[in-house]
Amino acid sequence: MPVCDPTALSQSLLAWYDRAGRTLPWRKKGGAAADPYHVWLSEVMLQQTTVVVVAPYFLRFLERWPTVAALAGASSDEVMHAWAGLGYYARARNLHACAKVVAEWRGGAFPDDEESLRKLPGIGDYTAAAIAAIAFGRRAVVMDGNVERVMARLFAVSEPLPAAKPRLKALAASLTPDLRPGDYAQAVMDLGATLCTPRNPACGICPWMAACDGRKQGIEAELPAKLAKAERPTRHGVMFWAARKDGAVLLRRRPPQGLLGGMMEIPSTPWRESPWQADELAAEQPLAAPWRPLPGLVRHTFTHFHLELRLVAGKASSNATPLGIWVALDKLGDHALPSVMNKVIRHALAKAY
DNA sequence: AAAACGTGGTC
DNA sequence: TGACCAAGTTT
After folding, report:
1. Domain count of chain A?
2. Quick one: pLDDT band at residue A156, thresholds 50, 70, 90?
3. Contact status, residue A189 vs residue A146, Cβ threshold 8 Å
4. How far is Cα A81 from Cα A21, in angstroms, rounded to an integer?
5. Which of A47, A208, A298, A341 has its CA 20 to 30 A from that of A308?
6. Of A43, A114, A148, A265, which is the active-site residue?
7. A261 contact to strand B (CB, 7 A limit)
8. Both A208 and A308 in a single domain?
9. Per the database record, which ranges form the HhH-GPD domain (predicted)?
10. Average of pLDDT values for A322-331?
11. Does A229 reside within a domain?
12. CA distances to A63, A81, A87 from A60, in Å
């Protein structure tokens, strides 16, 4: 049997998968049917996020909201709070919106085909294919970063991403079997995650080594080629640490769309490319107060820019009624604060008292 | 269709 | 220290 035969390749991969058997929290056990709710929840969390980070969030969500109907019944703030720290918060907004559609319009049943799944909020090409294959046993071509890398190497595709995507998908489709599509989808992704890794691929123990053109040509480590990314600019902001007499500090909610949309924040100036001057703060302050600069700065890096935040502290008079909520220091954990805001809070607690 | 959108770990 | 990267989607 020639090693380039698609059936032989998919079979050898499935054999490897059965033998290696990574145990992941969302994976069905002992031949049990995969629960579409579990598959959907895990796949949305796994978008651009590592297994290690997702696992505890997945278990926490499932414990708190055992069904899609339960999740649909949660408040927006509860969901955002539970998602805090995972990043890409549009996913949480779309997750909740999707849960409502499925629970209210479909009686809690997820659609079982790619085309219908694709219409739901937060479900794109990858997630639709993954749910169709893993939860419903449908043959679907699952394309994520792992599969792109594995295909680029296996077939020695040197054309850089993202232009190579259609070709890579066609190659992946040529290998996707009719049998055990869900296991096969997870097997290719596992191969990319554990052996065919971005750096130092473990070709020596790869079930596809004999067939791998990239390996034969000695270019596996250079693949997939990628276009250079744009530079990240640096933006600047000033955070207002407003403390009331009883110690409570001021938080407010960010606008529902855009960066950190719907999450809570320490009141801030906008984040712009030019640093802020002291005489500009009066026009940006959440309440009128004398502001005292705190030493040091908080650095944070987002996907597309670096951020440098300075802090100013002020005391709020008791009759101040700003747009926001006052939160006791020991209750800050009760709110939907993204990681960058927790960084700011840690800094303020260290410097302002 | 290019750009926006988080975070933490790794080398 | 910093660039790269992770089971992508939306506009």
Report:
1. 2
2. very high
3. yes
4. 33
5. A47
6. A43
7. yes
8. no
9. 45-194
10. 93
11. no
12. 5, 12, 16
pTM exceeds 0.90 for this model: yes
Strands A234-243 and A306-315: parallel
Q: How far is the CA of A145 from the C1' of C5 (A)?
A: 10
Token pair for residue A269?
């100036």
What number is the average pLDDT over the span A228-237? 90
Tokens of A116: 């219908």
Question: In this structure, are residues A193 and A236 in contact, taking their beta carbons and an 8 Å threshold?
Answer: no
Q: How far apart are CA A177 and CA A351, in angstroms?
A: 59
- Domain limits for position A248: 234-351
A308 catalytic per annotation: no
**A9-34 pLDDT per residue, tens:** 999 999 999 998 778 888 887 777 79
Q: Distance from residue A218 (CA) to nucleotide C9 (C1'), in Å?
A: 34
Using a 7 Å CB cutoff, list residues 103-142 of A near strand B. Answer: none
Q: How far is the CA of A304 from the C1' of B3 (A)?
A: 9
**Least confident piece of the model among A1-5, A59-63, A135-139, A331-335:** A1-5
Q: Which of residues 182-221 of A touch strand C (CB under 7 A)?
A: 186, 189-190, 192-193, 198
User: Mean pLDDT over residues A322-345, rounded?
Assistant: 96
User: pLDDT tens-digit profile of A111-120?
Assistant: 999 999 999 9
Token pair for residue A143? 């394309």
Residue A15 lies in a domain: yes
Structure tokens at A13: 């991969």
| Domain contains A127 | yes
